Amino acid sequence: MEEFLLDLIYKNKTVKFRVVNPDAPLSTLMNNLRHAVGNDGKLIFDFPSIDNTGAPIDYFFGKEDPEVHEVRVLRPRIGKDDQTLADYNVKNGDKLFLVPDPFPG
User: Fold this and answer.
1) Which of 28, 59, 66, 100 has the largest count of CB atoms under 10 Å?
2) How many C-alpha atoms does 27 have within 13 Å on its Cβ side?
3) What is the mean pLDDT of residues 76-82?
4) How many CB atoms lie within 10 A of CB 16?
């Protein structure tokens, strides 16, 4: 099977990230990414779990809409259905943004 690679962008840092199972739910992919380590043994991205006001932060994948040049959040669930990269037409080699989303405590 061909490797599935995404360019992930967070805080001006771009990392080429290999997705082991592109058919996995987005929530699973994000969870794996939060714990992913690079060759140096350190976390690839440092995701704060709370913002500067103390509110917990969730993270979502975002994809740029080429027509309006705005990043659209890829929701991990719609109704009761888990969403996957394919549901958002994300292909091998695409650029995705990591979007922090603080939620009120």
Assistant:
1) 59
2) 7
3) 95
4) 9
Q: 60 - beta bridge partners?
A: 99
CB-count exposure of residue 105 (10 Å: 0-12, 13-18, 19+) = exposed
pLDDT mean across residues, the chain: 90
Q: In percent, how much of the chain has pLDDT > 70?
A: 97
- The whole-angstrom separation of Cα 6 and Cα 89 is 13
Euclidean distance between CA atoms 90 and 64, whole angstroms: 11
Q: Which one-letter amino acid corresponds to residue 45?
A: F
pLDDT at 50 exceeding the cut of 90 = no
First CA to last CA across the chain, in angstroms? 43
CA Rg value for the chain: 14
Entry field: residues in the chain = 105
What pTM did the predictor assign?
0.86
Element (H, E) at 82: strand 81-82
Distance CA 92, CA 85 (A): 10
